[in-house]
Amino acid sequence: MIIDDHVHLQGTYGTEEKSAAVLLHYADKLGIDKMCLSLGFGREHEPTPEQLRFHNEQVRKGIACAPDRFIGFVYLNPKHTQASLDEIDKHVVNGPMRGIKLWIACPCSDPLLDPIAERAIEFGLPMLQHTWLKATGNNEFESTPDDIAALAARHPKAKLIFGHTGGDWEYGIMAVRPYPNVYADLAGGAPTAGLTELAVAELGAERVLYGSDAPGRSYASQIAKVYGADISDEAKTLILGANLERLLPAA
User: Fold this and answer.
1) Among 3, 27, 187, 218, which is most exposed with the fewest C-beta within 10 angstroms?
2) Count of domains in the chain?
3) Per-residue pLDDT reduced to its tens digit, 197-209
4) End-to-end CA distance of the chain, in Å?
């Protein structure tokens, strides 16, 4: 079982259905069984409650195209606490989604995330948090590896997926190493040699997840980070799907 923990719909394809079809077409070529879908067509850095609702409905349309292949992650903005909790109730408690997606609206070290983290713990939901550390400077409110380390320390029972391994993955891996509730997501970025090996050496294979960030990145370049890594076959099996299966709540 191969599960991609990090894919998105793309509005340039026209409709949710067409975007989902593109994701499925190329996933089939690479033998990817399931994909965690989030964000809709939304790329607003600070989405309003109305935008959250709209983009989560887009994800539901994508899931409906292949409910046996897509796993929905509900998109939230911690600056809108009640709206975010309402979206969890609508799409997770009463709907098909099984995780949480957080992007740029708020640094994840901010206490504004606490109600969302508490609800995630209550329902056993993994939280996929975009993280990056740019040499040219981050976007305003963009989370860094240190931000997710702070969140992990405050909520040790939360299941946190460390999106893009922080961009600067050498720094990022070391920043989250002390926190066993943080899982490194390999998605995005070039397929640089050594990333997966360092993550496995420092975190253990049980804390590393395959992801692509498709369609922004190709499945092929991203899955190569796992297939081409100098790690055991057992570690590759964990990274490609077994770890995420363990993190997700029951469908």
Assistant:
1) 218
2) 1
3) 999 999 999 999 9
4) 16
CB 215, CB 206: distance < 8 Å: no
Contact in structure between 6 and 187 (CB atoms under 8 Å): yes
Tokens of 211: 């992801």
Q: At what angle do helices 49-65 and 16-30 cross, to 10 degrees?
A: 50
Environment class of 47 (CB within 10 Å of its CB; exposed 0-12, middle 13-18, buried 19+): buried
Taking the CA of residue 191 as centre, how many other CA atoms within 13 Å lie in the half-sphere pointing to its CB? 16
CB atoms within 10 A of CB 92: 21
Q: Which amino acid is at 244?
A: L
Name the one residue in this structure whose structure tokens are 């363990």.
246
Whether 245 has a pLDDT exceeding 90, the answer reads: yes
Mean pLDDT for 110-131 is 98
Q: Does the pLDDT value for residue 95 go beyond 90?
A: no
Q: Tell me if 100 sits within 8 A of 126, measured CB to CB.
A: yes
Nearest to 35 by CA among 247, 249, 219, 236: 219
Share of the chain above pLDDT 70, in %: 100
Residue 221 domain boundaries: 3-247
Whole-angstrom Cα distance, residue 184 to residue 99?
16
Counts for the chain of helices (H) and strands (E), in that order: 10, 8
Q: What is the mean pLDDT of residues 139-161?
A: 98
Q: Kindly report, residue by residue over 45-67, the tens digit of the pLDDT.
A: 999 999 999 999 999 999 999 99
Q: What SS3 class is residue 152? A: helix
CATH of the domain at 73: 3.20.20.140
Q: What is the pLDDT at residue 54?
A: 98
